[in-house]
Design a protein that fits this description.
Blueprint: H1 10-18, E1 22-25, H2 31-44, H3 52-62, E2 66-71, E3 82-92, E4 98-109, H4 118-132, E5 137-141, E6 154-155, E7 158-165, E8 179-182, H5 185-201, H6 211-218, E9 231-236, E10 242-251, E11 259-268, H7 271-282, E12 287-295, H8 301-304, E13 311-318, E14 320-324, H9 327-333, E15 340-347, E16 355-362, E17 365-370, E18 377-380, H10 381-388, H11 394-399, E19 404-405, H12 407-414
Parallel strand pairs: 4-5, 11-12, 15-18
Antiparallel strand pairs: 1-2, 2-3, 3-4, 5-14, 6-14, 7-12, 7-13, 8-9, 9-10, 10-11, 15-16, 16-17, 18-19
The protein binds coenzyme A.
């Protein structure tokens, strides 16, 4: 599927051109044009001005994505006034299949051109293009949770942030065999990519990472202000199999015994790796606090520490958002922990995925077909995205009036014992 060269969406092109704006794909081999896009992307997220080495690294990392820009040819600025990019990412769904999903990132609009419909045109273009190529799902992570519901995305995983008071807790987990050792990002990168791939394949909600996304979890990107403070520790099983790593920075305090560790990323392909790496972090000397972000809602920390309240959840937030583009393909790709049959009436304002479908699950596998039977459950496509990966969302959405009908049956069929998780941003 050549999503890189698929022509730009004509409807969005027309809408923008009516407002004097031009929608175009960026030729990522044209360094000047690509640099302008990258600068606009950094500015959109209030980042610094990227230096040449940062631009060079970003060009290398991002050139494999479909890169879209909106230009205002009436102004002298070199940068586009709107940016977005997309690529096909393997999303792990319940049961372990990895579904090629349309991942969208770098959605920015110049503050000088806000609220003129540029984001609407960019998102419409992404979704219609993905749909026309037969991609069953679109996915993204969001800067603000109020933006993407209008395009049929629903929050499909929650992420937790934690602060652990390591002076208060002692290790209360099992023995942790295996070996820990420091590594340098350059030497370890290939191994890390294998570890990450294994970890991401094993959990619904995680995505297979492009080299760029994997790179930032292992070590700093160019221009990172904390670059020289990064530490990387790898975990290898007793038989020498690489199964996990943690990258982190340590910051000092007036009191030298009370440093703070910020975990950049903790990757664990096995439970043994997870336990050993947590133990390592909790037992660091001269450290009083360990902070970590984008963990699952089922992070096992309370069971690993001697004092449950010494490991506090500091935030629980929506994280991965899912937009179903093809109901039968999406629902048949995952497995189910119970059998059953339900007629779902799915409403889609963008006219891409709506319809009435009978979902029949036998031995955990689904058959989905269009039907005229009366609906058991009526819901907008965003709510279907919210329950799709097994997330505990159906009962609250029913309470809020967004899922109507037999929400309890929907919940029993879709929810999974292990909640889905996405442990990184993209
Ligand atoms: C978010 C952003 C891309 C929106 O761009 P925009 O071109 O101003 O948005 P549009 O004019 O197309 O707005 C489309 C709709 O979304 C709404 N909307 C857009 N941004 C919103 C926001 N931040 N909060 C609430 N509503 C928002 C608009 O009000 C409009 O609503 P309507 O359909 O009811 O009229 C832009 O504000 C931005 O670049 N922000 C900083 C970067 C960022 O957060 N990007 C998102 C990355 S996940």
């Amino acid at each position: 599927m050549d999503y890189l060269t698929q022509p730009i969406d004509p409807a969005s092109e027309r809408d923008l051109s009516a407002g004097g704006l031009r929608l175009a794909l960026v030729d990522t081999t044209d360094a000047a044009a690509f640099d302008g896009w990258i600068r606009a992307d950094f500015r959109g997220f209030h980042g610094g001005r990227p230096k040449e080495e940062v631009l060079e690294e970003a060009r290398g990392h991002l050139s494999g994505r479909r890169t879209t820009a909106v230009y205002d040819d009436a102004v002298p600025a070199r940068e586009p006034v709107g940016t977005a990019n997309s690529w096909i990412a393997p999303l792990t769904v319940p049961g372990g299949e990895r579904v090629g999903s349309w991942a969208i990132s770098s959605v920015t609009v110049a503050p000088t051109h806000r609220r003129r419909g540029i984001a609407r045109a960019l998102l419409g273009a992404e979704l219609r293009t993905a749909h026309s190529l037969g991609v069953p799902l679109a996915i993204l992570t969001v800067s603000e949770s109020v933006i993407y519901g209008r395009w049929g995305f629903g929050p499909a995983t929650s992420a937790t942030a934690w602060t652990i008071d390591t002076k208060r807790v002692r290790w209360a987990g099992a023995e942790t065999p295996g070996r820990l050792s420091f590594a340098e990002p350059e030497d370890y990168r290939e191994t890390a990519e294998r570890v990450l791939d294994r970890a991401m394949a094993g959990r619904a909600g995680e995505i297979g990472l492009e080299p760029y996304l994997a790179h930032r979890l292992v070590g700093p990107l160019k221009g990172d202000t904390d670059a020289d403070r990064y530490r990387l520790v790898r975990y290898d099983s007793p038989s020498g199999e690489p199964e996990g790593f943690v990258s982190y920075t340590v910051k000092g305090d007036d009191d030298f015994t009370r440093h703070t560790v910020d975990v950049n990323y903790l990757a664990a392909a096995t439970d043994e790796a997870l336990a050993a790496l947590w133990r390592y972090l909790l037992e660091l000397d001269l450290v009083a606090s360990v902070k970590v972000w984008t963990r699952g809602v089922d992070e096992p920390l309370p069971a690993l520490v001697s004092d449950i309240r010494g490991a506090k959840v500091t935030a629980v937030e929506d994280h991965l958002w899912v937009r179903i583009l093809d109901v039968p393909a999406a629902l048949q790709a995952r497995t189910y922990e119970r059998d059953g049959s339900l007629v779902l009436d799915v409403a889609d304002d963008l006219g891409l995925a709506g319809g009435r479908f009978r979902l029949t699950v036998v031995d955990g596998r689904a058959e989905v077909a269009a039907t005229d039977d009366s609906a058991d459950v009526t819901l907008p496509v965003g709510a279907l995205g919210s329950v799709y990966l097994g997330h505990d969302a159906a009962r609250a959405l029913a309470l809020a009036g967004r899922i109507r009908g037999d929400a309890a049956a929907l919940d029993r069929l879709f929810r999974t014992a292990v909640p889905p998780r996405l442990s990184t941003w993209f």
